[in-house]
Design goal:
alpha+beta, Beta-Lactamase, 2 domains, 13 helices
Length: about 270
């Protein structure tokens, strides 16, 4: 799937992200004097332009979402000026300098051989997801914990939708708030390659309407690369039948299959 919808595009997302990162910094964070009567939140645009060694007008256009060219060198200076971490820097790069293959394709059908491996994993938890965080396949134990139904509507098999709208998710995840923040940040990292996709935008719109907590986290613009997400805990889940908490360690495998881009297998094992 890759159909786009009128509305939000990469330039608008770039503008919102840059503003959010600029507003979280203070002059003291970057070694600048604050000066008297300072009323603006965070840094001023001219201060970012100074730090990045770019023109104020040019940076203003970039933060306004205008479609202007950005060199790799300039992007690196902006990244440094805004003190972006590695996940944020990669997110900004994908927005500003998308690959030639845009729009990226994603789908709801998984590779059958991978599905077989996932469904027959016996040493813990396993699932296959796509870049929209839809579960495409899972083993029996994971499906029992999550109460997943393969015949349910697609949205009922979306990780974010279940986390924020299913009341049982707060019992399932003992550290729900921390897990929710990380999952939203990881989803935004994937979103960079699908801005404007009608199904991504539709999911975000539905979640924003259904969950004030998702809406707040989404507007925080936090980013966490999927590679980092799987190594940051806790991922504890509570057995819905016994009430016991399974303390898990997860590992992921990027499938990198040309026929199924963006799909990831995740295995969870008990330490």
């Amino acid at each position: 799937m890759s159909a786009t919808t009128p509305g939000r595009d990469r330039h608008e997302e770039t503008a919102s992200f840059l503003r959010s990162r600029r507003e979280r910094l203070t002059p003291a964070d970057v070694g600048l004097p604050s000066g008297p009567r300072r009323r603006v939140k965070g840094l001023r645009r001219e201060e970012v332009a100074l730090l990045a060694d770019v023109g104020v007008t040019w940076y203003t256009w970039l933060e306004q979402g205008r479609p202007i060219a950005v060199s790799d060198e300039t992007l690196a200076r902006i990244t440094a000026a805004l003190r972006l971490n590695s996940s944020e820097a990669e997110y900004l790069r994908k927005l500003v300098k998308p690959g030639a293959e845009q729009p990226h394709i994603w789908e709801m059908k998984g590779d059958e051989s991978v599905r077989y491996i996932v469904e027959h994993f016996k040493d813990g938890f396993a699932y296959l997801r796509n870049s929209r965080f839809d579960w495409l396949a899972w083993n029996e134990r994971f499906g029992r914990y999550q109460n997943l139904d393969p015949k349910a509507p697609a949205i009922e098999r979306n990780m974010l939708w279940r986390l924020f709208t299913d009341k049982n998710s707060r019992t399932l995840y003992p550290h729900w708030k921390e897990y929710a923040a990380r999952l939203v940040a990881a989803f935004r990292a994937e979103y960079a390659e699908h801005v404007g996709d009608r199904d991504f935008e539709g999911l975000i719109e539905s979640l924003t309407k259904a969950s004030p907590e998702f809406s707040r986290l989404w507007t925080d613009f936090e980013v966490l690369s999927p590679a980092q997400w799987v190594v940051v805990g806790p991922f504890d889940m509570r057995d819905p039948q016994t009430g016991e908490v399974a303390k898990l360690k997860f590992d992921s495998l990027n499938l990198m299959l040309p026929e199924h881009p963006g799909q990831i297998v995740v295995f969870g094992v008990l330490p």
